[in-house]
Structures are given as structure tokens and as C-alpha cells.
Amino acid sequence: MNYRIIPVTAFSQNCSLIWCEQTRLAALVDPGGDAEKIKQEVDASGVTLMQILLTHGHLDHVGAASELAQHYGVPVYRSGKRR
């Protein structure tokens, strides 16, 4: 398992990109903002994004989730539920 921390928002909240080294399948955790920066990081990593995971509903953790989910065509999960 690999990961990359992506600082986002004016407060440098951390979005995490995690992926399997063998399959290159990935998930984003708490994409709080700056969707373009996150897209660049995902695309540069050469991974296939499979899902977005939200640890809680604060805006600084979910701000770019909808845009990224639509862009990559992936589901968003929060608190054990699919959105």
C-alpha cells in the first residue's frame, strides 16, 4: 500500500491518495478542496481511482468530493454508506 498526502484548502488540510502498489487501484480520502490540484496528483500518479472516502462531513474534508466523483465516475463513501 502506498500513499501521497495532498495539502488542500487555505488551511492546508490533508487529502490522502492511497493505492495498491500491485494493482494501481486507488482511493481518495477527504478531498476537501482544490479539485484541480487533486486531479493533477491523481493523474500524475498513474493510478486508477476507484472510490472517494470521507471520514466526516466538514466542508474542509468534503469540498471537492462531488466534482471529483463526477469527473472520475466513482462512488463516494461516508460513515459506512454509499452516496
Automatic annotation (TrEMBL):
<dbReference type="InterPro" id="IPR051453">
    <property type="entry name" value="MBL_Glyoxalase_II"/>
</dbReference>
<dbReference type="InterPro" id="IPR036866">
    <property type="entry name" value="RibonucZ/Hydroxyglut_hydro"/>
</dbReference>
<dbReference type="Pfam" id="PF00753">
    <property type="entry name" value="Lactamase_B"/>
</dbReference>
<dbReference type="GO" id="GO:0016787">
    <property type="term" value="F:hydrolase activity"/>
</dbReference>
<keyword id="KW-0862">Zinc</keyword>
<dbReference type="InterPro" id="IPR001279">
    <property type="entry name" value="Metallo-B-lactamas"/>
</dbReference>
<protein>
    <submittedName>
        <fullName>Putative metal-binding enzyme YcbL -like protein</fullName>
        <ecNumber>3.-.-.-</ecNumber>
    </submittedName>
</protein>
<keyword id="KW-0479">Metal-binding</keyword>
<keyword id="KW-0378">Hydrolase</keyword>
<feature type="domain" description="Metallo-beta-lactamase">
    <location>
        <begin position="9"/>
        <end position="79"/>
    </location>
</feature>
<dbReference type="GO" id="GO:0046872">
    <property type="term" value="F:metal ion binding"/>
</dbReference>
